[in-house]
Structures are given as C-alpha cells and as structure tokens.
Amino acid sequence: MSDLSNTPTAITCLTQGEVILYPTEAVYGLGCDPDNQQAVEALLAIKQRPVEKGLILIADNYGQLLKYVDDAKIPMDKRADIFSSWPAAITWVMPASKNTPKWLTGQFDTIAVRVTNHPTVKRLCQEFGKPLVSTSANLTGQETVISIDQAKAQFTEQVGFYVDEALGGNTQPSTIKDAMTGKIFRG
User: Fold this and answer.
1) I need a surface site. Which of 16, 54, 59, 171 has the fewest CB within 10 A?
2) Exposed / middle / buried, residue 17 (Cβ in 10 Å: 0-12, 13-18, 19+)
3) pTM recorded for the entire structure
4) Is the dihedral of CA 22, 30, 43, 150 positive or negative?
C-alpha cells in the first residue's frame, strides 16, 4: 500500500493559498480561496487580469455565498428568477456585502455569483466548505484552454493542482445577468 499523505490535492492547494485549474460547465476555470488576498492576486497575475474587473464566485449552494452577498438588498420580486435558475450555468451580479473585499469586487459594489450544477465543482466547494473564485483558464483576451495538457503547457507550475475531470458539456460560458434589473451582460 502506498503512502499518499504527501500527495497534494486540490483542497490542500486551496488551503495553502494556491491556484487550481478545474472543469466548469463549459470551460476550464482557474480558482482559488476567495478570502485569501495573496491567492487572488496570484490568480490575477497568472491570468494577466486587472483587479478592477472583479471576479465570479462559484458555489455548491446559495448559503456558501451569503457572506459575500448583501442578501437584504435583493428585492422579493427578483428572488424567484434568481433562485429558480439555480443550480445552473447562470451567474447573477448581486449587491456585495459591505465586508466583501475589493480584490473580489474590483471597481464595483456588486459581486458576480453562481450556484453550479457541475458535479466536480460542487464536490470541491463541499470539501473546501466555501465558494471558489472562478474565472476562465486563459490569459486575458486570449482563447480559453480546451484540455488539461494545453493548460499544463500554458500555466506550468503557476497552478498548484490540475483537476483532470470532464467539462460539463455546455458550449458557452455561463450567462451573466444583473439580479436587480435582469439585464444580460453575457448571453
């Protein structure tokens, strides 16, 4: 029997402030602990993405997102649209909690959040006990990587762990909608 105690896992890497690569509904994503500023800054550096743009959080359930969302500001008449759309590849831009760090919201007073139905991401969020930062695995403005081999060639040692599991089968990244107005930012 081999000793796997020193074998890194995605959860170990997340806990240690590293960036991981994992499958989402349509594309591979780069993710990290949303509460670890150094991890988020490392992810932004890998992606060459300015902090001002803000980031998406992906979760197993809405309860994992409550720390980051100002739930009281979401009108009752909007809740049915939001909660009936999940779990799915629909990201909602919601009012951010006053305690949500600017390294997540960027220049905005909102936070983009998604409750996923992808089994791998659900498992990662359950095991980690909170949401992950989720952004497409590419350099800003370039095509998203389409395989683990391509990801390893592009990101090499910058990524602490590569979760080599299947994509969710969607052909487009998640739809992004404004929770307050219903406006579609990405369809």
Assistant:
1) 171
2) middle
3) 0.92
4) positive
Measured distance CA(82)–CA(172) in Å, rounded: 20
Closest listed residue to residue 144, CA positions, set 24, 20, 17 = 24
The shares of helix, strand and coil residues in the chain, as percent rounded to the nearest 5, are 35, 20, 45
User: Where do the domains of the chain lie, and which CATH numbers do they carry?
Assistant: 10-186 (3.90.870.10)
**What is the rounded distance in angstroms from the CA atom of residue 70 to the CA atom of residue 111?**
9
3-state secondary structure of 1: coil
CA separation for the pair 78, 80 (Å, rounded): 6
How far the first Cα of the chain sits from its last, in Å, is 50
Cα separation, 92 vs 183, in Å, equals 10
Q: Round to whole Å and give the CA distance between 132 and 186.
A: 20
Q: Which residue type is seen at 160?
A: G
The span from the CA of 25 to the CA of 166, in Å, is: 9
Q: Are strands 56-59 and 110-115 parallel, antiparallel or unpaired?
A: parallel
Distance CA 128, CA 62 (A): 15
DSSP-assigned letter for residue 143: P
Block residue for tokens 């403005």: 141
